[in-house]
Amino acid sequence: MKVTEYFEKANGQTLISFEVLPPLKGGSMKAIFDTLDPLMEFKPPFIDVTYHREEFIYKMRKSGYYEKTAIRKRPGTVGICAAIMHRYGVDAVPHLLCGGFTKTDTENALVDLNFLNINNVLALRGDARKFDGKFIPEEDGHAYALDLVKQIEDMNNGKYLHSDVENGTPTEFCIGVAGYPEKHFESPNMDFDLMHTKAKVDAGADYIVTQMFFDNRKFFDYVERCRAVGIDVPIVPGLKPITKRYQLSSLPRIFHTDLPEDLVNAVQNAKDKEGRRQAGIEWCIQQSKELKEAGVPCLHYYTMGDSDTIRSIVEKVY
Fold this sequence. Notes:
Blueprint: H1 3-9, E1 15-20, H2 29-36, E2 46-49, E3 55-60, E4 66-71, H3 77-88, E5 91-97, H4 103-115, E6 120-124, H5 145-156, E7 174-179, H6 190-203, E8 207-212, H7 216-228, E9 235-239, H8 247-255, H9 261-268, H10 273-293, E10 298-302, H11 307-317
Parallel strand pairs: 1-2, 1-10, 2-5, 5-6, 6-7, 7-8, 8-9, 9-10
Antiparallel strand pairs: 3-4
């Protein structure tokens, strides 16, 4: 079933979904199942699986020179989606990136997903690689999520890349895209950011999942501004609890989000590690309750492999 169909079927009730990371290369599905098994009692209708493009490392050769080598630290997104659907009987939503894909690679990935009866995707540009100063698309790849959305929508209309594909079978992908309550860090202002988000919706995106945020006022303002410019698709808040002191600096640096003063003080003033974890959990519980009371279509939790923390939050909200 499509993600948006779950929203419609819920008749205004707030659903719940989780997002998981593929294990590091060499790991097993046990890590995924260990994360999800304790959370399945909350009956998520769908689960997101992230995708991670290749990175480069530099290996010293015997000659003394360094060789640039591509690696995939977290492969397996499509296989994990299939395993999740088989084990739990819920829909999986693979993330599909511009980075690391040519247009042909994208089409082939979508064909594979379609054959597996996976009909939901989250279309993202993706981040720049670690040693790149900016995002660099593949040759003959997409530079923007908008173009990725257009390609997926073309396939939904039976239009494939190559002219020798006649009478192509239309796919039925439900397309999610990212939203940024505090704007994308590369956007000069929120109006510019919303213009690009609306372009993705106009091109065929069916719903929006937001970047993590810690101040609900920013989410509510974001939704209001989206509606004002004609973005009428469901907007799902993405949530992650702070559980460690170092996240007070790492999350703003990596995800470009502000942290409310009360949250920072609560974490800083906690007596020990467990106290800091509980401060972050309590903040996320209150965030979740307020969002649920406001009637958001779904609460989307970034698990980061920490099912104990997410479970302690969700059981107080649902």
